[in-house]
Amino acid sequence: MLNVEEYFKNKEKLEGAYDFHTYKKNLEKERHAKSLVYAHLDKAKHNLAFVNQNIKSGNFQDWSIVGLYYAVYHAALALVAKKGFISRSHNATMIFLIKNYTNEFRNEELQLIDDLAITKKDATFYTDLKSERQKASYSTDAMFNESKVLELHKKSIDFVNKVEDIIED
């Protein structure tokens, strides 16, 4: 699992990971990328709508977790696309967000308003939800109760809404 805490503390480690992902072409500048911003945002909302229906049925909590993760992931991809890039890796996407949408390494004149920045809490939520998604997808014994799904659902909606605010700014 990606330890986001390390990348918030260590700019050199963040830059090294960013350089690695650009070298491997997991992150690439793409001229058509900006046209994908709203497509990714729409896909995020589509996944949230799926989860809403699934929650109403009261079944398949594991698939709700999967849907929530992909809602958050597509919202993150929308932010990547907003900067003219595409990402081919879940970890590369988070590295990109930390480098481009946080206040950690910006000088004071360039600080973003926290409501329009990805915070350490947001990044940790992303990686924790990714871990839950992996359990839901691959484990034979990971069961998720309704309260856990509802908690992650609210946080996912908050993340997608925050991304939408950043995009609209």
In short:
It is built from 7 helices and 2 strands; from the N terminus they run H-H-E-H-H-E-H-H-H. It has helices at 4-9, 11-23, 37-57, 61-82, 90-101, 120-138, 146-168, and strands at 27-29, 85-87.
List its traits.
single chain; 169 residues; mainly alpha; Four Helix Bundle (Hemerythrin (Met), subunit A); two-stranded antiparallel sheet; 7 helices; globular
Number of strands: 2
- Under CATH at level 1, the class stands as Mainly Alpha
Instruction: Bin the strand percentage.
Output: under 5%
Per CATH, the superfamily is: Nucleotidyltransferases  domain 2
Describe the largest sheet.
2 strands, antiparallel
Q: How far apart are the first and last residues' alpha carbons, in Å? A: 31 Å
Q: What percent of the residues sit in helical stretches (DSSP H or I)? A: 55-70%
- The domain count comes to 1
Strand order of the largest sheet: 1-2
Helix count, per DSSP?
7
The CATH topology corresponds to Four Helix Bundle (Hemerythrin (Met), subunit A)
Question: What series of H and E elements makes up the topology?
Answer: HHEHHEHHH
Q: Provide mean pLDDT, rounded.
A: 92
The low-confidence runs, each spanning 5 or more residues with pLDDT under 50, are none
